[in-house]
Protein: Sec-independent protein translocase protein TatA
Amino acid sequence: MFSNIGVPGLILILIVALVIFGPNKLPEIGRAFGKSIREFKNATSGIAEDIKAEIHEDIKEAKKVDITK
Structure:
């Protein structure tokens, strides 16, 4: 995602953010962004685990069904 930005682009973005938000607000914004990303990752991993559990249950049920009938 960020591979096309490069170091000069990243520095420019940080300078613009520093000018817009100021040095006091920037750490708060960074923490809030990090917390949001962490919660998103936790939610998506929870959903993935639920889907895997459902698939495993369906496979177990399918194995119990007698195919020869």
User: Anything to note?
Assistant: Helices lie at 6-64. Residues 47 and 53 are 10 Å apart (CA to CA). The chain has a mean pLDDT of 86. The two ends are 52 Å apart (CA to CA).
